[in-house]
Each structure stands twice: as C-alpha cells, then as structure tokens.
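Example 9 (inverse folding). The structure is encoded as follows.
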C-alpha cells in the first residue's frame, strides 16, 4: 500500500448519474469527498456508450434528476428518448451548474480498497499510484459499465476496425462504403443496426437470440409538449416514487386471461401504435407472472414481425422464442424489423450457422467466410456486480469481495455487504436498480446513504456493518419474489447468465421501487434495523466523534 496522501469522508467512484448526485448530496451535507472517474469526461454510461443510435429507453421526463426544480425547468430535452450525446451534455450541464467537477479526478481508476479495522477507514488506491483514506466508500460505478467480450476465437486477428458498443471510441468513425458486421441483438445491437442500415455498403447482423423489439415512437419535443409536462411535473415525480417501476405509470389489476380476444387485440394494437410508458407490460397485471398471459403478448408481437418482414424465412429467424416476453429487457425500435427488407442488410442466425472464428478478413461461420471491414461487438456487460468486482476490495480480516461473491453477489437491503463496513452499493445487487427507473433508483439510494452518514456523524458512529444472516434473509426475499414471476425463464444479464462462469443468481429486487423505498425508509427510521453501528476503539478512547 502506497503513502496515504489525502483523507476525506467519502470516496465516490464514477461521474455518471449516480456519482454526480452522490458528489452533490454528500458535499452539500458538509462531507469532504473525493470522486474518481476512469474516463476523461462526465457521463458514465453515456460517456462510454456513444455508439450510433445509442439512446435511453425511458422517457426523458422520468430518466432525469428530480432533485432540482430549477434544473427541470431550465433543461429543454429535444426528444422523447434522448440520445447518449444529449444525456452526456445534460450531465455535463449538471456538473457545471452545481460545481461538481472540482471534486472529480478524471482519468483515474480505483484499483483497490482495503478496510482498516482499527481506524474504521477505507484505504483506496488509484491508478495514479496515490492512496486516499476515507471513512466511507461509495462505488457509484454503474450497473452496465463493464463490457462483456464476445468470447470468440481469433478476434485479435481481425484486420479491420473493431469496436465494443460499451467502449465506443471518441474519434469519428466512418461507416460509408464499409462492410460492417454487428454481433449481438440486445438493446445496443438493435439501436446500432437501425442507425447503420443504409449508411454503409453492407450490414451483416449476427444474431444468437432473437429479441422482442417494440416501437419506440420516439419524436422531437416542442415547447408546448415540454410546458405540458412541467405543469404537473412535481406530481408526476411524487407518483413515481410509489410505483413499481419508478415512473408514473398506472398498473392494471386485470388479468389477460379474463379479456375477450377483441379487447385484448385492441389493447395490444394501442400499445404497439401509441407506445405508452411501459408498453405491453402495462396492458395486464399478469404479463410478467403468468405463462399464458405472457404468451398472448409474445404471439401478438410475432404476428407483427411476420407482417413487417417481407421474406418469410428471414421473419422466421427474427421470431423471439424460448423465453417469455419482458424477461429479457424488451428493446425499443421504430425501424428494426423493416431494416431486414433491405438488400444491403443480411441476417445470420447463429443458431443454424454458429461463428467458428474471427479471421483477418472477417467472420467464419459454419456456412463460410463473411468478409468485413468493421466489426461491432454489441455483446453486453458483466452487469450489476461487474464494476465492483473489478476493484480489489478487501473488508474485515482482509477478506476479498470477489471470494465473498464467488457464488453470487449478496447484499443486505441492496445497500451493504456484511464484513465490508462503510461501503455502500449503489443500485446494485439486491436493489430494484435496472428493473425500475434508474435515475429514481439512484436518487433514492444516494438520499438514503446521505441520511445514514448524517445520522452516523450526529451520533459519533464510525462504522456501519451488517451480518450474513441479514444478507441471507434479504437475498432469500429477492429469490422468493422472482420465483413468483417469469424472469427465471430467460438467460438474461439480470441473472448473470450472459457471462460464462458467472454464478446464475437473479440479482435485482423485483418487489417494486415504491415498496423498496418504503422498506429502506422504515429500516432507517427504526435505527438502521439489520445494521450494526459502532465507534472505533480509537474514537471511544479519545471520546471523539
Ligand atoms: P445485452 O442485452 O446483454 O445483449 C447482448 C447481445 O449480444 C445479445 O443478443 C447476446 O445474445 C449477444 N451475444 C453476447 N455474446 C455473444 C457471443 N459470444 N456471440 C454472439 N452473440 C453474443 O446487452 P446490450 O448492450 O444490448 O444491452 C444491455 C442493457 O443496456 C439493456 O438491457 C438496456 O437496459 C440497456 P444472447 O441473448 O446472450 O444469446
């Protein structure tokens, strides 16, 4: 361990939505903070994911900070679903407006964090060789921030350009006249494919699993539209705090199984044409919990695909099967299926023609060589736990977090790992995180953490920890809830199933954003039930706080 050069109350990792809000809240609460960001700019996920077509899949009104009325009023979103670039500019604006940049050290990665049990301090080492001592460690390093490599033989031999969507380069990438291959058809692939079709010489899509893509109905926003939302914005935000998905979307109580075919058809046509906030998930109460109810949506969308895609053998390959609708995050796209009617777009179904290897000229599948000038890996992320396990984190007794999580990530209340005191996880394992509105989830977590740190300061506590029993109970609860849904029927990143060797444990809490928020507040109000709070020996002897 190097020389400790600096001491502060909290070290924050990341300068995305979560990191920026953590900096603001903790600084405003009077804590001395230091943030680190591996990139050279603000934006987190939106900094790294500047691939063509990248945009958020929640409406801008919901996917934005709610903490400042002035910010809400002054920032004019230009589209219903803003692009990655617009989101990055928004976050840059937030950083400047609230003077957050001065707290961030850019181009600096946190390599390790070790808990000093005698002092109740984290000793945090960064890529510039420095060490910071901090009472609290807040890794706000993102749930989708560690790109998953494609695990294909020979990728290093490819002689053309190659990019991962999650690490899109900062230089201008030219597509015109090139033969481009996209591997992966999750949200990133679907967006990239729509953006590149017609913009390059030829686009080849390598699809392992066909996904459900529903219309986005993205559109430009007019001043009148913005004013309409602003008129009831406060109310919208308050409702969002108590709902399941953290957005002001009313959930129905009716079952799809009680609906007449005509009613159902009307509802689904409306969902397809008008694209409400939660789309098909908002049509009936049991879409994500009952196989038969779910099958009605799945078949409706398959019907649309058959109609949109002209060539039946191509349409057939695009039909999502083998997992229920919604259990892998549905993708948004207004032109996705029609792209396959173009002569300059080819779909390769990896189920029938698996990739054998990448070669200097392109990709060899079971059906032969496909020559390419550019390869785009849209192969996803080591989600939820990946960013934290990339840091060498050691808790009480020098125990490593990676060992502790070897059989799957575990937390109590989605906020703390037993024997890793004073380390708060943000929107990670055991919290609703990506299964609710991420910006709401982030604000809720950071507000809770700030309150906890303030209470500790007031009471002179220097350590907060939890126990394995509490983790067991909480994670069991997470599993009990998911078993009442269809989510376990898909090999999704929620389950870690997309990363070879990663334990298959469903990590997000599915009990709903509103219920989760209530539970966290109750725990705090009850004196941090399930947590243990204490003072360091040093503080006790000195009578210090
Ligand atoms: P996803 O949703 O994890 O999608 C990754 C895609 O890449 C998916 O189609 C995978 O197929 C495919 N993939 C992964 N590895 C391979 C290999 N080795 N060969 C072929 N195909 C592969 O990541 P995204 O970045 O699109 O989206 C992540 C989230 O960001 C999204 O849910 C939104 O919340 C925003 P598979 O399905 O595993 O068969």
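The amino acid assigned to each position is listed next.
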């Amino acid at each position: 361990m190097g020389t400790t050069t600096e001491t502060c109350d909290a070290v924050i990792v990341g300068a995305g939505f979560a990191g920026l809000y953590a900096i603001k809240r903790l600084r405003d609460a009077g804590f001395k903070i230091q943030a680190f960001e591996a990139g050279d700019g603000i934006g987190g996920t939106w900094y790294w994911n500047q691939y063509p077509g990248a945009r958020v899949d929640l409406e801008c009104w919901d996917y934005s900070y709610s903490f400042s009325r002035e910010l809400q009023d002054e920032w004019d979103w230009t589209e219903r679903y803003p692009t990655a670039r617009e989101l990055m500019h928004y976050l840059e604006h937030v950083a400047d407006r609230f003077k957050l940049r001065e707290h961030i050290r850019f181009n600096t990665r946190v390599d390790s964090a070790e808990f000093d049990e005698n002092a109740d301090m984290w000793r945090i080492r960064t890529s510039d060789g420095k060490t910071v001592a901090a009472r609290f460690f807040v890794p706000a390093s993102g749930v989708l921030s560690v790109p998953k490599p494609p695990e294909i033989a020979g990728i290093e031999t490819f002689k053309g350009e190659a990019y991962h969507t999650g690490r899109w380069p900062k230089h201008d990438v030219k597509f015109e006249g090139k033969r481009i291959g996209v591997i992966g058809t999750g949200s990133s692939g679907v967006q990239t494919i729509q953006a590149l079709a017609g913009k390059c010489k030829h686009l080849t899509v390598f699809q392992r699993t066909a996904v459900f893509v529903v219309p986005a109905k993205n559109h430009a926003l007019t001043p009148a539209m913005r004013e309409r939302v602003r008129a009831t914005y406060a109310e919208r935000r308050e409702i969002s705090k108590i709902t399941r998905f953290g957005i002001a979307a009313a959930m129905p109580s009716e079952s799809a199984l009680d609906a007449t075919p005509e009613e159902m058809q009307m509802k689904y046509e409306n969902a397809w044409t008008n694209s409400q906030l939660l789309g098909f998930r908002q049509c009936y109460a049991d879409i994500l919990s009952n196989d038969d109810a779910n099958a009605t949506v799945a078949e409706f969308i398959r019907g649309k695909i058959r109609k949109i895609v002209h060539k039946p053998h191509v349409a057939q390959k695009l039909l999502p099967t083998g997992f229920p609708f919604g259990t892998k995050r549905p993708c948004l796209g207004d032109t996705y299926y029609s792209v396959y009617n173009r002569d300059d777009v080819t779909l390769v179904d990896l189920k029938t023609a698996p990739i054998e290897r990448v070669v200097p000229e392109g990709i060899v599948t079971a059906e032969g060589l496909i020559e390419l000038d550019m390869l785009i890996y849209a192969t996803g992320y080591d989600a939820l736990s990946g960013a934290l396990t990339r840091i060498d984190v050691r808790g009480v007794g020098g125990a490593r977090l990676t060992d502790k999580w070897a059989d799957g990530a575990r937390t109590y209340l989605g906020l703390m790992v037993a024997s890793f005191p004073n380390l708060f996880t943000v929107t990670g394992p055991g919290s609703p995180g990506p299964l609710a509105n991420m910006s709401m989830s982030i604000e809720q977590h950071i507000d809770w953490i700030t309150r906890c740190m303030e209470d500790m300061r007031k009471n002179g506590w220097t350590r907060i920890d939890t126990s394995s029993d509490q983790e067991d109970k909480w994670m069991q609860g997470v599993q009990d809830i998911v078993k009442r849904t269809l989510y376990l029927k898909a090999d999704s990143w929620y389950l870690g199933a997309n990363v070879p060797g990663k334990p298959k444990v469903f990590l997000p809490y599915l009990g709903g954003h509103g219920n989760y928020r209530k539970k966290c507040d109750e725990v705090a109000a009850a004196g941090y039930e399930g947590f243990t709070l204490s003072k360091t020996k040093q503080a006790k002897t000195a009578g210090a706080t």
